[in-house]
Amino acid sequence: MSVYKALTIAGSDSGGGAGIQADLKTFQELDVFGMTAITAVTAQNTLGVHGVYPLPVEGIVKQIAAIGTDLGTDAIKTGMLFSSEIIQAVSEQIKFFKWKNIIVDPVMIAKGGAALLQDEAVQALKSYLIPLSLVITPNIPEAEVLTGITIKSMDDRKEAAKRLHEFGAKNVVVKGGHDDSSDTLVDLLYDGAEFYYFTSNRIDTKNTHGTGCTFAAALTAEIAKGNNVQDAVQTAQNFIHEAIKNDLKLGNGHGPTNHWAYKKQKVIL
Ligand SMILES: Nc1ncnc2c1ncn2[C@@H]1O[C@H](COP(=O)(O)OP(=O)(O)O)[C@@H](O)[C@H]1O
Ligand SMILES: Cc1ncc(COP(=O)(O)OP(=O)(O)O)c(N)n1
């Protein structure tokens, strides 16, 4: 039996809906062995982020090296990286181990408004990490910050995707969750040559905490298994759609999605 492996380099969400916790649950549901390098611990629940505690860079590097020198990995997802020092150190490790399947979720701000990336670290993302990425998965506000383009239309989104490709990302997915102009959501993929449109119905719920992490983790798991980027994006969208549709109604604020739902629905079919 082949065991596919994925490493997530991200922050911990004590509430279990986003970050490392969402990534591991998603990897497990998609039959991929998950490993972690934790960059920061957050005290977080469905009501918001109550504290952010970055780890020393040395401890982050040691976690990554522990994987690189022993278990190895088929794909890597990066999430909350917090500072330019962490971004630089993570990028150096990725280059050192010659890892190729890098999925960069450029996490900046949590739903409640808390900063998960320092402002000055945006340039480090562009200079060091994005050029190493197989896929980058910004939401619309993140694509705006990274490119300086104000996104109001699909043409603006396509322009931003092209700019991110010029920064060195081989594939760009500008996710559509923040475009509330229609009941149809579009996640836009650009591979440097063509645009691909992945559509789904908008689900009316406040329980969308961790959607971006879960989407990128599902994409990473599919890449780890050897699938191509287009198929991986489609599975990631199907996975998050089921997770949002079957929300768990936990907590008093923006609740987590249901990481069991995609597999359960497949078993029933
Ligand atoms: N209300 C919703 N109904 C269905 N899918 C959604 C909804 N909100 C977000 N999604 C999907 O979840 C994923 C993450 O979307 P987005 O909200 O843009 O990113 P983020 O969580 O990083 O802000 C995308 O695949 C998007 O299409
Ligand atoms: C530790 C940690 N990492 C990332 C996020 C952001 O997750 P995201 O999927 O973008 O979801 P929201 O926070 O926007 O609901 C996080 N909150 N915590």
TrEMBL record:
One of its GO terms (molecular function) is phosphomethylpyrimidine kinase activity. It is an enzyme of class 2 (transferase). It comes from the Bacteria. Pathway: Cofactor biosynthesis; thiamine diphosphate biosynthesis; 4-amino-2-methyl-5-diphosphomethylpyrimidine from 5-amino-1-(5-phospho-D-ribosyl)imidazole: step 3/3; Cofactor biosynthesis; thiamine diphosphate biosynthesis; 4-amino-2-methyl-5-diphosphomethylpyrimidine from 5-amino-1-(5-phospho-D-ribosyl)imidazole: step 2/3. Keywords: Kinase, Thiamine biosynthesis, Transferase. Pfam families: Phos_pyr_kin (PF08543). Its EC number is 2.7.1.49, 2.7.4.7. NCBIfam families: HMP-P_kinase. This is Hydroxymethylpyrimidine/phosphomethylpyrimidine kinase.
